[in-house]
User: Fold this.
Amino acid sequence: MDASSQYRMENDTLGSIMVPKSAYYGSQTQRAIDNFNISGITLPRVFIKAQGIIKAASATTNMAMGTLAPDMGKAIVQAAEEVIEGKWDNEFVVDVYQAGAGTSQNMNVNEVIASRATELVGGTQRVNPNDHVNMSQSTNDTFPSALNMAAAEEITARLLPVLNKLQEAFQKKADQFMPILKAGRTHLHDGVPIRLGQEFSGYAETVNTVRQQLTERLDGLYVIGLGGNAIGTKVNLQPGYIPKVMEEIRKRTNMPFREPANIFSFMQNMNEPIRCMLTLKELATHLIKITSDLRLLSSGPRTGLAEITLPPVQPGSTIMPGKVNPAILEMTHMVCCQVIGYETAVATAGIAGQLEINVMMPVIAHTFLHAIDLMANAINTLVPKCINGIDVNQANCERWMNESLSLVTGLSPSLGYDMASQIGMSADEENKTIKQILMEKGLLTEEVIQAIDPKGMA
Assistant:
């Protein structure tokens, strides 16, 4: 087939360019395809949806203010709603590593909506991507607004619910395991007794604390700067546009989005993505600690601590028959490593803001939203495939507890620290329990027995 049957010629300020005939996107999107063949990764559906919501809300507002003709405006709204629904997802093709600030991404959406809206008005008039779809807008205010909207949706709909499930799962195990006494450990060496349920209650509260922090961060994402236009001065904007478009956004999202206290600060900085990523980094840090604990507690089954057992999910070795590894915990740890790296990427991109705008917004959007997605997916797998199925090996818990040298800690109030230390060292050197040494020294009175009773110590 010749080029004329496959492509159409489009023109923009840089000249002519060939665009596939079947594509709804236009010249600027095609230039981005040609210029930024970098990763093959595009911004996620939730971001495209947010952009569609902004375009529909803006067109509705512009019609209400009399700056956009009703027939054209209604077509734009319908086309934008089709974008919101995901009907044209395959038309959003700009790589995340693209021209600064996301101009190409914004034009991709503008061009797709304009082409579809032109169809909807029957081709009697051409809907212009800039003049009509982008009316009262700029990339510089809509891109960060779409990012905050997308992140707010993802955190509300996906991440907070799975964090609730994780906290509840740990709390359920804490309640289940509270009767189980075991050896505590500090520096990976013998520590005073603890209840297994107490360990798990710590995990539950750690998750709960981060969940609360993320809920607080969510409020900051409700700040969006629509109407700031190029640099916050609201150039080319009709009076009254901002409150009207904000109301339309709230109506379409059922979320309490609001204007920033200072529009210039919003335009200059990536405040909330940076702050939210710090909270995600903290979550990742805690989950690495927790999953590492669970790997230690389940280590073995014959040569490790083996105080808990994990549900087996798949074979663990290509050479050692029957070996089963803590696969879900390892996966979660890897995801957390990635999220910690992502926080550095967002912070570094945040530093790159200059004067009235941060041009690194596309990579911040990709990294931030992908971090939320990864964490939600990992936790949504961790809970049913691992945490819910954890069981206890009570015999091992009792054995390690009874052999722990730190039981001697209970003797310090009555015998003194130095005498207790000597008893502990003797037990270690002679490979005996604390109780055996006390018996040999004739010190095993009823008072001493109570002092080293793990139940009392825990």
About this structure: Residues 45 and 89 are 7 Å apart (CA to CA). The longest strand covers residues 189-195. The beta strands are 7-12, 15-20, 181-186, 189-195, 308-309, 391-392. Residues 404-457 form a domain with the Ribonucleotide Reductase Protein R1; domain 1 fold (CATH 1.10.40.30).
